[in-house]
Specification:
mainly alpha
Length: about 525
């Protein structure tokens, strides 16, 4: 398939997976609240974050293997492609064993450190060991996903994971109903093993493995190449974890499991939106890397500009709608167990607006730093997120007593604006040979969209704030969502994107899109 078709299939499957994940989340959180206390739910979210940190024993090798496979997939006969697959498989086995051993060593020590209540420490330890056991299995099978990534076939695993959500939900419900408590969530995650099998079968059937005589042999030079790039990715990923995944641990440490549970529930929609928007760049990254390898510079810069503009404007639109809808959604979703958006609760309406702004910041930064990552020349980027994370954690330790979650969100925004965003923009400017004026021009459509959408959203939010919660959610979603969509099509995309959207849209929609964008049909 062509690059565009691969990208379209990958993006479509990614959104199918995201939709399935949303339905799964919408169904499982009320189910969990039915059987678990707020503290037990917080216990699960905290062990999940610890498992995320233990996944860093990947040391960046997954991204390194997938990216370097792209360099060699067009010339399999020299054996380097096959050798890379073998080295990647061996590394995955070692990493899986290391992750599991670390989880066993840390399981019973972290409970007291995070101030987990005494009666929950044994459950904390066994949950952590169970999650990291599944993590170890995923490490062993990652080579198959890396091969599929190099060939731009994200869609295969996406569809498999989407289908397995229903099975996972059934297992969880069965476990809760039979008294397994918080461990029912762990048993439901056993379905992740099936995706490893699906990826392996797909690689074999699509002939993505080398033929006989093309496998080569593992060697030290290839490992050194993988490790050098992987080391940079590891430092980049470690910093990213400190910036985006340390909030639950900090809240648990400073305010307890109950507040961590509130944070987890009130940011679920934010996490889903971020994943949705990240996919625009993530599923195009292999194609962008291939353009770099084949030195298709003009096409590369044009495509990346379109991706950056589209993802930024979509994040502005999504962040605006999120800001006016999140508190009402959470209140309905949890059947009033979390009465969000009021000054007397653990979650204020201001937090929704801060999260909306942080969503835009995260998406813009993700695109620009990810683009530099595909060039394999990270430079100081490997340290930027780490430095940002350390500053964020240090400031949070000093200032948490002045505002809790709200202060934490403000610090997250401030640190991103001070560190990762300006650095990512500077590196994009240098790689693409742009002036700062040209970089600003890239983001003009998104700024116009924000100026059109945000004031209207704030006014609608103000006038509907005293409505019953269901009416408030419906009014904000319909009025702000509709207005923002029109403004996105009219002002949020540059001319080339608007023209391509009209060209690729179904015939029945071309006239509507043409009127909204102000452009004539092709």
């Amino acid at each position: 398939m062509s690059r565009f078709r691969n990208f379209a299939h990958s993006l479509a499957s990614g959104y199918v997976l995201l939709a399935a994940n949303m339905v799964y989340t919408l169904a499982t959180v009320p189910l969990a609240w039915r059987y678990l206390s707020k503290t037990e739910f917080g216990l699960w979210t905290t062990t999940s974050v610890v498992a995320q940190y233990l996944s860093l024993v990947d040391f960046g090798m997954s991204g390194s293997v997938a990216r370097i496979l792209i360099d060699h997939k067009d010339s399999r006969r020299d054996g380097r492609y096959g050798s890379l697959i073998q080295v990647g498989a061996l590394v995955g086995i070692v990493q899986g064993a290391l992750a599991f051993l670390l989880s066993v060593a840390l399981a019973f020590a972290l409970g007291p450190l995070l101030k987990v209540p005494e009666e929950f420490r044994a459950s904390f330890a066994w949950l952590m060991i169970g999650q990291c056991g599944l993590l170890a299995v995923s490490f062993v099978g990652r080579i198959f996903n890396q091969v599929l990534t190099a060939h731009q076939r994200f869609d295969i695993v996406n569809y498999a994971q989407a289908a397995l959500f229903a099975v996972s939900y059934g297992i969880m419900w069965f476990g809760f109903a039979h008294g397994q408590g918080v461990f029912a969530i762990l048993w439901s995650q056993l379905t992740s093993v099936v995706t490893v099998i699906v990826a392996a079968v797909a690689c074999a059937r699509l002939n993505f493995f080398p033929q006989r005589g093309e496998w080569g042999r593992p060697n030290r030079a290839l490992f050194d190449e993988l490790f050098a790039f992987g080391r940079d990715i590891f430092l980049y990923a470690l910093g990213g974890q400190l910036v985006s995944a340390s909030q639950s641990l900090l809240l648990t440490r400073f305010f307890g499991l109950d507040v961590a549970a509130v944070w987890n529930v009130c940011t679920r929609a934010f996490t889903v939106l971020a994943q949705l928007l990240y996919r625009i760049f993530d599923f195009s990254s292999s194609a962008l890397a291939e353009m770099m390898v084949r030195t298709e510079r003009e096409r590369l810069l044009n495509r990346f500009k379109q991706i950056a503009v589209a993802s930024t404007s979509l994040s502005v639109a999504a962040g605006t709608v999120f800001a006016v809808c999140n508190s009402a959604f959470v209140e309905i979703w949890t059947s009033g167990k979390i009465d969000a958006g009021h000054a007397t609760t653990d979650w204020f309406a201001l937090n929704d607006w801060l999260l909306g702004a942080w969503l835009v910041l995260c998406v813009v930064t993700h695109a620009h730093t990810g683009f530099i990552g595909q060039s394999k020349k990270l430079g100081f980027l490997r340290y930027v997120f780490f430095l940002e994370g350390l500053v964020f954690i240090g400031l949070m330790a000093l200032l948490h007593r002045f505002g809790g979650i709200t202060i934490m969100l403000a610090l997250s925004l401030g640190c991103g604006l001070a560190f990762s965003l300006p650095y990512g923009l500077r590196r994009t400017r240098a790689y693409c040979g742009l002036s700062w004026r040209e970089v600003a021009e890239w983001h003009r459509p998104s700024l116009r969209l924000a100026l059109c959408a945000a004031p209207v959203a704030a006014a609608v939010w103000w006038f509907t704030r005293d409505l019953p919660v269901a009416w408030r959610l419906a009014a904000n979603g319909a009025l702000v969502g509709g207005w923002t969509l029109v403004m996105l099509l009219r002002f949020g995309l540059d001319a080339s994107l608007q023209t391509e959207l009209i060209h690729r849209a179904p015939v029945s929609l071309r006239r509507i899109i043409s009127r909204l964008t102000g452009l004539s049909q092709p």
